[in-house]
Amino acid sequence: MDINNYIRELCAAARRAAPSLASASTAKKNAALAAMAEGLTADCASILEANAADLAAAAGNGVPKTMLDRLRLDEGRIRGICDALRELCALADPIGSGERWVRPNGLCINCVCVPMGVVGMIYEARPNVTVDAAALCLKTGNAVVLRGGKEAIATNRALVASMKKSLAAVGIDPDVIALVERTEREGVSAMLTARGLLDVVIPRGGAGLIRTVVENARVPVIETGAGNCHLYVDESADLDMAVKVAINAKASRPSVCNAVETMLVHGAVAEQFLPAFARAAEAYHIELRGCPRTCAVLPEAVPAEESDWATEYNDYILAVRVVDTLDEAIAHINRYNTGHSEAIMTASRAAAARFQAEVDAAAVYVNASTRFTDGGEFGFGAEIGISTQKLHARGPMGLRALTTQKYLIEGDGQVR
Amino acid sequence: MDINNYIRELCAAARRAAPSLASASTAKKNAALAAMAEGLTADCASILEANAADLAAAAGNGVPKTMLDRLRLDEGRIRGICDALRELCALADPIGSGERWVRPNGLCINCVCVPMGVVGMIYEARPNVTVDAAALCLKTGNAVVLRGGKEAIATNRALVASMKKSLAAVGIDPDVIALVERTEREGVSAMLTARGLLDVVIPRGGAGLIRTVVENARVPVIETGAGNCHLYVDESADLDMAVKVAINAKASRPSVCNAVETMLVHGAVAEQFLPAFARAAEAYHIELRGCPRTCAVLPEAVPAEESDWATEYNDYILAVRVVDTLDEAIAHINRYNTGHSEAIMTASRAAAARFQAEVDAAAVYVNASTRFTDGGEFGFGAEIGISTQKLHARGPMGLRALTTQKYLIEGDGQVR
Lengths: 416, 416
Description:
Chain A contains 16 helices and 16 strands.
């Protein structure tokens, strides 16, 4: 079958199943989540076997180390995934909540929270996203079409088969979770143009995926996960604190989107700060790519090229640039950033306030690591992704981001 | 100059001016709105002169009557526009409002409401939208690029010149309101691809504009205003009430998006209801386009073609179809509607509940006219348009729809 027709049939089946889930009770949806957690635990051995096959194939194809880290499952990670499912049961169900008011003419207006309908997820080879996305969509009454990275296809098949079994056991149509099993690249475009079949597509991934989405999307999208994040060390910064935060922001988990990719350093502290940072960075084997002034202070730094400022490495690489003013730092960030997370290290309240007001991003930090941009860390309990756009949702997206509203109006013959 | 460059320069100028407006106080923004109301009142004569020139040219070009109605200004309508500006002063300013919480690790998270940045408006020849959109964007701290229908260009020039004068008088950079004065069609595509210059584009218009937007948009958009609305007369309906509401929904102002375009009638009441409706419709010279069963009851009806079910006439024309069940009515609506406003006339609570749950639209009415889908009628006080999409905003959009959020996080060296 043509890939386009394959995708459309998959989406259409999810769409047919969606209304039954949209009207399911909170209790039934929570029962499904609990069953999914039990099922994944019971199926752990076969899931890990599938994952081992994916890992072996990926390693054989020369997939980079950071991607292997995202792809890998083990018993601990599966336990974590199942714990997250159980925590999701405890979160309030937004569906059906709302506000009701009566107009002077007697019309009763009820604005209620309703599911989007069918959500398309396009993401990289991260099996935990397969379960997270399916679970968050289920809790919000949405059917979901999952298109994960091809390197994780065996793992995803095992995970989705297990979840579908659990859905059937509690009486929910298993078609509400659909996995795109044919992973040719054209399937992504087919999803992005499935108007009338997908209500929203959420791409999670790097700059390449986001570009594809912007060029091809004919359905509404929420762009997520492109994180060219910056940390700016101001002249008034506590330099010991700055070293600690910068190392954390870069090296605690370089493969994720809230890791820092470029560090900007005020010229007045560059000669003192950069060597201290470089010493701490040695333990992590961080490759430094510097502007000429950085390279003059740090002979071990590689000269940065223009493209480095725009690159999300997702790796143990950091671009470093010396700037002379706060304005220059803000201008650099607003030129190259992806609207994700930005941080300033400073003791100046005035500099902090200007940085937070003028930097255009979802999350702007003062004296803290960008690594905190995360639904769990913000206290939302669950996250479908981190939106880098301004429309609908910005920053970590919880359950609400997967819903829309509907006005239900009751009258007794009112005319205008 | 190339139209693409012309648009990009216009957007870039608005973008440069935007930060000063984003940080303006509520008092200053309200002073600007009051000055705009005064200015438009003072400039009334020259605005009406420009409008008369537009109307004469449009009539000469054979522009349809309903479009002339939208284009026409008079002293009363200008007074109404100015009253709306003054009412906008009284509305709460959403910018800067938000929520603040502290995480167990001491991080203080502040989620604040901020302007989008620069908003692009693409709309038809409706001069009132020029002022409404400029004012709503101003109140929410956004710069705006206005691209109205070419038939209204002289009127829009006069309106924007007057508003810019008022902005300058209160010390706001007049570049925050930009008018696209070159109205060739290619300017629309140029706006839809102005990535990095426009933060959101809001098209207001019919199916043709929405199609152009879907095909061409590379910037985030909020689709509005396509209203293929339906009224379904159930077998249990109060038929006198149904006649009154149906006439109002079709004929009180056929040129607007919340007017009904297709009426569905249950077979059990068609023979009684349709003649009564047709008699009432005579006074408005409504052309009826019916399915075969409708035509059998109403010999004056023209046979409807398949395309009629998908057409937003915006005129004194109504498509009519007889259906045998509620399911058939819901299926017809979910196939042809544009996600705007749908109504059922019924005395059955069960039918009303199913219709409201299963029809997929922004506003779903029981026993009331679809004409109430409007920011003012809902009690929101102001409206930038009626969203027919599920993302970001759905239904009448008030001030909030023109804003986004930003997380401002403060720490003292927290790492993860």
